[in-house]
Amino acid sequence: MPVSSMNDKQNITLKLSVETLKKAKVLAAQRQTSISGLLTQKIEEMAQVDDAYERARTRELARLRSGSGFDGIERLTRDEMHDRKSFR
């Protein structure tokens, strides 16, 4: 995710319960940041995780469609599959 500059950011307004706001102030103070900074960090982390998930999902769906790793050339018989001696 590209690093943003102050010029491409936009303010938003949130409505939080009084109790949630109190907790947010404490959390922000503990992390030596503002509520805005705290929320920005968490939302950016969530967006990065989502982006990574989507990339992995796309990659794996393409792999499944191509049949990579599932060529079916060497199939085990039922007896071979259940032969526990070969796993020792």
Task: Please report the number of helical segments.
Answer: 3
Structural class: mainly alpha
Uncertain parts = none
Give the integer mean of the pLDDT values: 85
What would you report as the Rg, rounded to the nearest angstrom? 25 Å
Blueprint of the fold:
Layout: H1 18-30, H2 35-66, H3 78-81
Structure description:
There is one protein chain. The chain has 88 residues and is mainly α. Helices cover 56% and strands 0% of the residues. It is elongated and about 65 Å long.
Summary of the model, kept short:
Helices cover 56% and strands 0% of the residues. With 88 residues, it is an all-alpha fold. The protein has a domain at 39-66.
Entry keywords:
mainly alpha, 3 helices, 88 residues
